[in-house]
Amino acid sequence: MVTLYLVFMARTVGVNEFISSIVAASGGISASNLYEFQIVPNIPQDLGASPLAAHLDANVNFFGGDADKTVQDKLNLLCNEIQIPGVTYSAHEYKMAHKGVTQKMATAKVYNELDVSFFCDANSVPLKYFRAWQDYTMGVSDTPQGSYEKTSEGASGDIKYQIQRAVVQHYYDYYIANIKIKKLEKTGVKQHSVYRPGELREDFEFILYKAYPYTVSSMPYSAAGAQLVKVTVGFYYEYSHLFQQPRSDTRANQKNNARMQNLGLNDLAGTTAGFA
Q1: CB under 8 Å, gap of 24 or more: what pairs does 133-136 form?
Q2: Model confidence over 35-59: pLDDT tens digits?
Q3: Side-chain-side CA neighbours of residue 199 (13 Å)
Q4: For residue 116, which of 70, 78, 86, 74 has the smallest C-alpha distance?
Q5: CA–CA distance from 13 to each of 168, 233, 237, 261 (Å)?
Q6: What is the pTM of this model?
Q7: What CA–CA distances, in Å, run from 202 to 22, 72, 193?
């Protein structure tokens, strides 16, 4: 009796074949420059409206547009780099659970901080927006109209005559906001998608709950050659969660992706940051 054995031989896989296989199976390689984010100010139960949003709206002319729409759009376009923060577990060592074995039991879930980098336009919108947010957290006043307007005396009267406001802190629920980060993809988009019709497919949404900017980086200027001005904003938040869009059309997307066998590396480099 002869027993047959199947022998699998390793073979060389070219770049084009690799990309084609990935495209046919899952829709392609994820592009790092397809994303968008949204800041949703918290609404305290005792107020029924967001005081943080009111503060930003009251000074909207100094930010360059409508705080709810235009500024958010500008922040997306000016966003140089954003990240999905990682999660780390701290652990407690339990020695000799079994002979020679040390167990590390999870004791706490630690959410890493969020850092977002922005390019500054001629109006320095990112700098003004997040400094205003920080000012509302601790400082300025409850009636912020004109708080940032420079007078003939060199500073706003609201700040000059109420210097104690520099150390007054608002309630926690008043200055926090949820930050939504959406990962977008070019592939697997149905022509009449309910998410982003004819443009990009939203793969998942990552929400950071109860966040606020704890740091706005320094912005160095120099007499050397002109370069893009950047500002980095760091956020604290309590916890985060990932929400994935329902993929009831997975089979249809796979059929559409199978037709896209000509996708190459150059196609990935042809996207634009934030939006495509």
Answers
A1: 133/52, 133/56, 133/175, 133/212, 133/213, 134/213, 134/216, 136/51, 136/52, 136/55, 136/56, 136/170, 136/174, 136/175
A2: 899 999 999 988 889 988 888 877 7
A3: 10
A4: 78
A5: 63, 43, 44, 15
A6: 0.72
A7: 19, 18, 10
